[in-house]
Specification:
This protein is α/β, with parallel strands linked by helices. The protein has helices at 13-16, 27-41, 61-67, 105-111, 124-137, 154-165, 176-182, and strands at residues 5-9, 46-51, 94-97, 116-122, 141-150, 171-174. The relative contact order is 0.21.
Length: 183
Amino acid sequence: MSDAWLVVIDPQRIFADSGSEWGSPMFDAALGPIKSLRSGFGADRTIVTRWLPGTDRDGSWGPYFERWSFADKPDTDPLFDLVSPANGWSSRGTVDVSTFGKWGPGLTRLTGEAPTLVLAGAATDCCVISTALPAADAGATVVVAADACAGSSEDNHAAALQVMGLYAPQIEVVSSAEVLAAR
């Protein structure tokens, strides 16, 4: 796994702040394992993503932002800033997208078309699973560091991990310690 990329998905205030409608109660607990992974991978093999609302409200995005109007703000709103520990995790800046899944041109430009990705971040049951499935479909090997992910709830986190585990061997769900031991 020495050629793997650590992808820390959306370590942003909107998902970390307990006062946010999308704040994960698991975010603080996931930070320690994420930091350990980041130390093991280094800034050159770590990619940090950010979800931004953008301006597209076509199709299902219109009703989505009606339902979640608190997040319908300009991309520059501090709500979308990285949490302070995440600043500097990557030497490559951030990959910013306005979709749940982060797999696409921004990531493949950095990782290549069929890389090994280690996923961590928020939320397990939204942006992590939405990244893992299309990456696996595209031929990437995906490793989800379960303890380095934060779900919207413990139950939703467990459900998303269970679903991703069904895709073995393309998607493997392991602990951050197992990832580091394999490096």
